[in-house]
Known about the structure:
Elements: H1 2-21, E1 27-31, H2 37-45, E2 50-53, H3 56-62, E3 73-76, H4 85-91, E4 94-98, H5 101-114, E5 119-124, H6 137-148, E6 154-160, H7 168-176, H8 178-187, E7 194-196, H9 203-208, E8 213-216, H10 218-221
Parallel strand pairs: 1-2, 1-8, 2-3, 3-4, 4-5, 5-6, 6-7
Helix pairs in contact: 1-2, 4-5
Amino acid sequence: MVIISARFSVIEANIQALRAELPTHVTLVAVTKYAPIDSMVRAYQAGIRHFGESKVQTAQEKQPPLAELKNLTWHLIGHLQRNKVKQALNLFDWIHSLDRLSLAEEIDRLIPVVGKSPQLLLQVKLAPDPDKFGWEPEQLMAELGELQKLTHLNIVGLMTILPQGAIGEEALQIFQRIHPLRETLEQKGMHLPHLSMGMSGDYREAIKAGATIVRIGSKIFSASTPGG
């Protein structure tokens, strides 16, 4: 019992430290893919209302035990397979990982069937990385016309993940590349107020670069020093 209480107190302290650091306009999404239900409840009690899951199946398992928690917003932040789109539309309020035209077409087809239209973010690669999903800027611009024909999509911003190992000034410079891309897309008729970028290791650089949403897991749920 002592161990559980200590873990819970660390979660609360970590959230308090993050809240003190984040600007008020930045939404904190708690990445809960490794968090057990009791830790998620404690995070909720400490003020978290946005939970981010990487897999549809995990959200299917976790949402029923948390159904009594009010005003929760669920974010899909991981890669979405086309055969999971229908389930994802039912489960999530936001999908951060719209990363290819074929997926956009499937989401557009199923939104009227499911009757739910989540807020969508286009996942882009701001630096080459074979291990990350998403449009490269040139590819996105080439496919933009086809994307804009999909009238059921509620696209509200961009999401990006840095290449492995990018930290500090390098991370900041990569994050900043999102602004000319967003400006070009908005000139083409899109409205993209949200920028989802920054995780536990690079959220400070992301905020400096204009992030409106940060996705943080270990910084909340780790049993290390609170706020560390």
